[in-house]
Amino acid sequence: MKRTRLLIILSLIFVMLWSCKKYEEYPPEPQIEFLDFLLLRDAQGIDQRGVLRFSFTDGDGNIGLYDYDTLPPYDYNLFVRYFEKQNGSFQEVFLVTPRYINDTTIVYDTATFNGRIPILTPAGKNKAISGEIEDTLFINNPLSAFDTIMFELFIRDRDLNESNVIQTPPIVVKKQ
């Protein structure tokens, strides 16, 4: 009887300690932090792409878009702005790409570096999440003679909470 009572008391203590497990707590608005940017060169030694890496935290774990989320404000959740250093200061540049409707008609679209982060919500009771995200970006603008670029970015969760804005350091792109 004493042994049964001891087992019950030890089990209750174990359950109480387990239920007191501390989880990471973050604010419901996502937070991001720049980690690094890796240049990717082609076979000719020209920088064509780069891998942007940043960390994130989110208290309610609602980062990410479903495949069927395609209309604003749920078309993108990673927002990236592109800058070139022109005459000593960084200027935002909007890239324009040609699209042919037929043999004689060209329409110009504005290219974007914005992206889509997939659903990251964890299973279970605690929804707080943290991790790292990598995004590969095309960095060699053939329409520009400037070789120093920078990116600015933020993310948005499904409640439309926006994170802080971060910037990469200046990136010197080898063009030829």
Summarize the topology.
Layout: H1 2-19, E1 31-41, E2 47-58, E3 78-86, E4 89-92, E5 96-100, E6 106-110, E7 129-138, E8 148-155, E9 166-167, E10 171-172
Antiparallel strand pairs: 1-2, 2-7, 3-4, 3-8, 5-6, 8-9, 8-10
Report on the structure:
This protein has 176 residues and is mainly beta. The protein contains 1 helix and 10 strands. Strands 3, 4, 8, 9 and 10 form a 5-stranded antiparallel β-sheet that branches. A hairpin with a 2-residue loop joins β3 and β4.
Summarize the model shown.
The protein is mainly beta and 176 residues long. 10% of the residues lie in helices and 39% in strands.
> What shape does the CA trace take?
globular
Mean pLDDT rating: 85
Number of strands: 10
Structural class: mainly beta
The oligomeric state is single chain
Order of helices and strands: HEEEEEEEEEE
Query: For the CA atoms, what is the radius of gyration?
Result: 24 Å
| Low-pLDDT sequence parts | none
Largest sheet, strands/sense/barrel? 5 strands, antiparallel
N- to C-terminal distance: 84 Å
Strand composition percent:
35-45%
Q: If helices are DSSP runs of H or I spanning 4 or more residues, what is the number of helices?
A: 1
Helix content: 10-25%
